[in-house]
Amino acid sequence: MENLIKKNHTDKQMGLGILIVVIGAVFLLRNTGVDVPHWILSWHTIMLGAGLWIGYRKNFQGSGWLALTVIGAIFTLKDITVFDFEMSKITTALVLIGLGLWVILKPKKFKNLDQNFQNNQADIHNMKS
């Protein structure tokens, strides 16, 4: 168990290190005159990254990280232009597709009614004894 905790901490530390290196590389490219798109270091891209980072740290459990990620993604997609084509024209469709995939692929958390009923009967028999 201890090895698993250490490995998980090491993986998260490596992820943070990679993130810092990428941000530093973007700053270096921008300061040396390379044309880096303005949306890469905007508030909404940082919000998107923060949401993904929080989700990664919490193993994508809960929904707080999802709100940050969705809001950041919507504003980032509105700001991206690729080959003079604005992503804002297809943002709603992409968000709906992403939401649908999340609903389909999320882990199933349900109890079988028969097992629940059997467990309740066993508890009642134990109380009577």
UniProtKB/TrEMBL annotation:
Keywords: Membrane, Transmembrane, Transmembrane helix. The lineage of its organism: Bacteria, Pseudomonadati, Bacteroidota, Sphingobacteriia, Sphingobacteriales. This is LiaF transmembrane domain-containing protein. Pfam families: LiaF-TM. Residues 16-110 form the LiaF transmembrane domain. The chain crosses the membrane at residues 12-30, 36-56, 63-81, 87-105. It comes from the Bacteria. It comes from Pedobacter ginsengiterrae. The keyword Transmembrane helix applies.
